[in-house]
């Protein structure tokens, strides 16, 4: 009988969560490096360069790849010849590991988990509880996979109870437009087929733990129907031309993973969950000899890609921003922002709405300003701010007209805007700018000053004033309503279909 000590499990979970916060899986880095070499879209290539540069910076500095450090998923395969030396529930012990990791003073991670989700939505402050799944199997060891799943990609999960004759490839392609770029491509698609509604979604998430091997699979050729389906979906999704960050290009997905299970004759449940550019997962084994510690990757194995600001990028002084300058920007333009900007996301926008409805005076003047949709990680070791990448902009769509009425000239976030928000942006003759998701530490290096100026009690959702220097963004929606997330994928899809460019391999 193998005896697993409670403290060894806690320490191992905590170590793994810290590890994945700043180390990408090397299979992802290698695949992304290949995608960078092959990419022909300038905007997409620039975005991939930012992600790769950010990844290496995080590996060197031991700081989070993304400010959204995720909801923790833990998959346990418990060998039945193992005994846990404790009187507590396994959930409580695993959550102690999560708590220890997320409150590590040397690399504090963002607490994003809210209790009472339908009503008060109170932050638990330590990112617990985790989502725990346990399978009892023969053996005398414990195999554990941990993953930290960001909200931007998790929110794009899809499910359908298909009829047996329905085509899975067609369904996946129907979902891609509605997923937009909020899941921060290029990443992976995990697909579960069969079982029941909840089981196929679990299969989809489990499949994302598998290593990226699409290049090797294509080289040797498929040997099963599942492998054929993986390749078919991979090629079809990349042919859409969505590209990195939705900017149009060759690589939308780096791999497609599929797990299946038997299901009822009357149906064919299918679930799909994307993994983003901040894909985070790791595996370890406990055998009773002590905690498991993961070996760091070799920095020499990273692609030699270093992002530098585009020499053609327009430099913008936010402290002297005018409607005329904003109106001169064109969709796809790359900008380098310097000066002072405000921040605000879901909770702050809701608070502003409620204050306006109540006739209360706002604590911040938004006239002539830019706002950045962000919830940063707490700073450590003398940092001005922790990793501070953008959050998904569509969640602020319903507040857009309200905020533009207050005089905003520009909004900065991640991925596309909804059509209603694009219409409002065009009507007010302002702009929406896109920062690269999955490059949070790189972005934070552009932030030279940060202070909370309103709603401090909201924690990471408070309104800050950032002072930035050469913060890189792309004009996603210009003052005339031209939308790069609509126009660029359409053009790249046409190029791929016409054979003007080689599709992703």
Structural summary, described in words:
- The protein is of the alpha/beta class.
- It has three domains: 1-150 and 299-308, no CATH class; 151-277, no CATH class; 314-489, fumarase, CATH 3.20.130.10.
- The chain is built from 15 helices and 19 strands.
- It has helices at 6-22, 26-38, 42-61, 90-102, 151-154, 168-179, 197-207, 214-220, 225-238, 323-328, 346-357, 400-405, 419-428, 440-444, 484-497; strands at 2-5, 71-79, 82-85, 114-115, 122-123, 131-137, 142-149, 158-162, 187-195, 253-263, 268-275, 281-286, 314-317, 334-343, 370-372, 410-413, 431-434, 447-454, 463-477.
- The strands form five sheets. A five-stranded mixed barrel has the order 14-15-16-17-19. The chain has a four-stranded mixed sheet with strand order 6-2-7-12. Strands 8-11-9-10 form a four-stranded mixed sheet.
- Strand 15 (370-372), helix 12 and strand 16 form a beta-alpha-beta unit.
- It is globular.
- The N and C termini lie far apart (48 Å).
